[in-house]
Amino acid sequence: xxxxxxxxxxxxxxxxxxxxxxxxxxxxxxxxxxxxxxxxxxxxxxxxxxxxxxxxxxxxxxxxxxxxxxxxxxxxxxxxxxxxxxxxxxxxxxxxxxxxxxxxxxxxxxxxxxxxxxxxxxxxxxxxxxxxxxxxxxxxxxxxxxxxxxxxxxxxxxxxxxxxxxxxxxxxxxxxxxxxxxxxxxxxxxxxxxxxxxxxxxxxxxxxxxxxxxxxxxxxxxxxx
Length: 225
Ligand code: 6GU
Fold this sequence. Notes:
The protein contains 8 helices and 9 strands. The protein has 225 residues and is α/β, with parallel strands linked by helices. It has a 5-stranded parallel β-sheet, with helices on both faces. Strands 3-4 form a two-stranded antiparallel ribbon. It binds 6-chloroguanine (6GU). 6-chloroguanine binds next to strand 5 and strand 7.
């Protein structure tokens, strides 16, 4: 899978893409992530990439031309399955959409800044608009890091223990059950006996029950869909 991220702040993406599972996935060749600085496609010697909004109002708006040129160049090199714009007014991200994106070949992710991008970019170039939740971030970069992390970890083969990503919270529509590790007792706090029993059938039943209990308690909305 190839992911091209278009941003005015490439530095913001360095650390999230350079560690842990996302880094290992790149090292393995499971994903090829390229970060492009939109400013390199800006106009004039100042490399201008934003301008005042027509009709007034607060804040600068990202201009069409630099984003257009960059997307045109990329599209000439390969076909893209989706060109995603990250914006608080997009469709709220959830696991099913993450899973679908993890099996496509090429995507572009556009990070907006300032007051957003000229509407004509959204109308003519973007195929999908995604939000990561009902709150406003200063720009799309942190949302891009979230989206890429979520997608990359479910690309088949990225997590070595094949079942690991499949047992995440949300993968079966439920929250994940609690987990424990050594020691069996700390400070008088004991690990549930069933997990030490060695009875795999009983353990699986307990985990299912706990997942259901947790979901009913913490996220009943997940059960009513
Ligand atoms: Cl994708 N972008 C911004 N700027 N804010 C957000 C968001 C995205 N998702 C939630 N808030």
